[in-house]
Amino acid sequence: MLCQVFPEQYDSQLADKVDRLNDLLPASARSLPQSVFASSPEHYRARAEFRIWHEGNQSDYIMFNQETKEKVAIKQCPMAIKSIANLMPILMEEITQKPVLRERLFQIDFLATLSGQMLVTLIYRKSIADDQAWLDAANALKAKLAITHIIGRARKQKIVLDEDFVVEKLNVDGKTFIYQQVENSFTQPNAEMAQNMLSWARKMSKNAKGDLIELYCGNGHFSIALAEHYNRVLATEISKTSVASAKYNIAANQVENVTVIKMAAEEISAALQGQEFFRLKEIDLKGYDFQTIFVDPPRSGLDDLTRKMVTEFDQIIYISCNPETLAVDLQSIQQTHDIIETALFDQFPYTHHIESGVFLKRKAN
User: Fold this and answer.
1) CB under 8 A, 24+ apart: contacts of 301-304
2) Confidence of residue 266 (pLDDT cuts 50, 70, 90)
3) CA atoms within 13 A on the CB side of 277
4) 118 vs 85, 170, 182, 320, CA distance in Å?
5) Is 215 helix (H, G, I), strand (E, B) or coil?
């Protein structure tokens, strides 16, 4: 994909994804309720990264054709949300006119929000440390184009004007949730779809009882939105940056019943089986009444220990970015749990990627 969109093909590509997901789901799930969330057919990506190609007096955003490996100049990107798409040409024009900003510029990354903030990262193959001329030009660029923050990067160098994050505001079920999104950390790339995912997960939690445990919580994206449906939430994440961001977001949303700890899924699994961890010295695991578990694993799916662990809870909310590994996990989980409802979130239109959700409950005895 080279930033193109094909609105006339959108409905058929979405239908193909629905068919593919249903082919992978257990046969028993195909007659159950399924929510299908369509994306906007254009201007849906809130993140974009482009290499920069310089030739003579001209500089262009480029991407590489994966089949031919040839570079392709990107003059416009209707895949990106409008704030990024509109900024791209005027940003390049400004950079082209300023040698200190243009020289050895290797890549430009954009991180935008529905709330109107924009972070631009300029990545160089030269030193920009202690370069006052670059700093002055970058500050002038930031002011002229109303860019919220600019980051300059080079080998082992990072210059931040003024923050390395943006603050997103997502509207879900009539509520506004605030999320710090840090540069170079995972965030949902399709912000409108992120709202749909939160709404669906909240619906699955509506009649929940007891406490929630979440694995792979990232910046607290789901934990915070689900918190009102549970007595308490314990969320785990292995990334130090994401844990810090989650704590920021918990405070920003004034949520008082969510605790985030830095632990891998395998570690919390072992802890629930009685193994002691120093990081849990102030957490009374036995005091929690975990009845629901929420998992949003990497593309590889659940590891063997975690797959067994999730079956120990009455309810499972599983968000998947890979239907193939989801299918493998469900083969095991279905021995103890029934699928109640499924969902497809078209996070990445015009690609083979499928984001899905599955809600399961323990089988009746």
Assistant:
1) 301/325, 301/326, 301/328, 301/329, 302/265, 302/329, 303/265, 303/266
2) confident
3) 18
4) 12, 15, 12, 28
5) strand
- Region 286-309 average pLDDT: 92
Q: What is the C-alpha to C-alpha distance for residues 25 and 197, in angstroms, rounded to an integer?
A: 19
Could you tell me the maximum CA-CA distance found in the chain, to the nearest angstrom? 74
Report d(CA 165, CA 292) in Å as an integer: 31
Residue 144 amino acid letter: K
Q: Is 321 a residue of the active site? A: yes
**Which residue among 168, 267, 341, 355 is the active-site one?**
355
Region(s) of the chain under CATH 3.40.50.150: 7-42+188-362
* 272 vs 134, residue with greater confidence: 134
36-45 pLDDT tens trace = 999 999 999 9
CATH architecture of 47-166: Beta Barrel (2.40)
pLDDT higher than threshold 70 for residue 8: yes
H helices of 279-336, where? 304-310, 323-333
Q: Pick from 335, 342, 343: which is nearest to 363 by CA?
A: 335
- Phi and psi at residue 223, in whole multiples of 5°? -50, -45
Name the burial class of residue 197, with classes exposed (0-12), middle (13-18) and buried (19+) by CB atoms within 10 angstroms of its CB: buried
The CATH 2.40.50.1070 portion of the chain extends over 47-166
Distances (CA, A) of 222 to 216, 217, 274, 317, 336: 10, 7, 27, 11, 25
Amino acid 304 reads: D
What pLDDT sits at residue 11?
Answer: 97
Across the range 44-70, mean pLDDT stands at: 93
- Annotated catalytic residue, options 3, 77, 217, 321: 321
Q: What is the pLDDT of residue 24?
A: 95
Is residue 77 annotated as part of the catalytic site, yes or no?
no
**Among 236, 168, 188, 235, CA closest to 37:** 188
Rounded to the nearest 5 degrees, what angle is found at the Cα of 323, between the Cα atoms of 320 and 329?
75
Domain 7-42+188-362 sits in CATH at 3.40.50.150
